[in-house]
Amino acid sequence: MTNQIHETPAHALIEKIWTHHIEPALHDYIRIPNVSEAFDARWDEHGYMHHAVELIRRWCAARPIAGLTVDVHELRGRTPLIVMEIPAANGGTNDDTVLLYGHLDKQPEMTGWRDGLGPWTPVVEDGRLYGRGGADDGYSAFASLAAIEVAQATGMPHNRCIVLIEASEESGSPDLPAHLVALRDRIGTPSLVLCLDSGCLDDQHLWVTTSLRGLAACTLTVKILTEGVHSGEASGIVPSSFRIMRILLDRLEDSTSGRVLLPELHVDIPDNRKREAIDTAAEFGEPLSKHLPFVPGAHPAVEDGAEQLLAHTWHPTLSITGVAGIPDVSIAGNVLRPFTSLQLSFRLPPTCDDEAAVVAIEKALKSAPPYSAEVTVNGRHSGPGWNAPPFAPWLQEALQVASIEYFGQPSRAFGEGGTIPFMGMLAKMFPDAQFVITGVLGPGSNAHGPNEYLDLVAARKVTGCLSRIMASHATRPK
Question: Is 214-267+314-383 a CATH 3.30.70.360 domain?
Fold first, then answer.
């Protein structure tokens, strides 16, 4: 049953800031092709990332927030980090810190955008802002500052705030640890972490993420010849590089079931996460697969709704996300190719040791190469997953109050299939902190893919929820 939402001065101010200030800035941001460094090795030379950083820095610095400082932290050879600091207001304390996090780098363009849309062309239709990076995660800097501005303007207290907006998250956050070390004293010891880079199962509740998967990735290359040769001359004598690739992939994954075969990539699923998946599936009825763009007649690998939630969160998976050495079918000759390269992308369970996982992957691929082929593993990298600590009573109540105030429904929690390496890093640095990981990446918003969109109504509501949660944090029982 939906509770009636009572409009307040905070609601009106959020609407004003989003309509007149955030949305125009997001249009400009979407136009910038600042793909993450993993997809643009010359990012520094091209300047797109610096352009995006300056756009956001300039917008943030102009906000009427008492005591706000906005800096760009730079380290040689690394992407920049925007660092904002806001002192406590309206009765809050500077002895307690809230850390707000987001990122501004983007995934590559991807093909398949429908007519009238494109990755660098902002388009608003039916309350949705289409374009790469708006939802993942360009809106985070704007919404975070707006939440603080609304709190100050409407008399809500907040404690000292640090806002970090990084520029390498879509590459696995390789640059972030160095920034965190350099800024450790300035950051302090946050007791609350707020992050807007996650998803939701509908637009009717404030959704809080209780776990995130880790990741491991590498480029696997199999080379069997020094140059391509006529397939009629060599096939039957030379094993194809693709067949050798299949043999190696069979060491990693059961191709029939999709089960990852390396034990280092599996964990025991906590009982509370199993129960969470069962309860969420029962309440919302439709499984995750209902909202995915299957071709007509196709079906998911797992049918049960609860099992889909667990497969989406706690089971390791392997995806092939890129290929080299194979020509387009329109120009494919009768040639036995010299090599095949695949980009392997693993999603790891939240509590899996990502460093041990990537070592196990490389060992499985490089030991005893079939036919003594040349097998190389390059670009190996990984990032930790994250499993949320239990919500403190004050935070559990704050989530419900905020969700009802802005969504008219209680908050809900679920495990997310994506990865935010920063959360794993923070959990190790600040084990006593409370985490609110949320976002507007609902079914169909298609982050990383074509037709990505930001739900503008939901983004406004999440902004309001942040203000309310920060106020509850500032007044919580000590």
Answer: yes
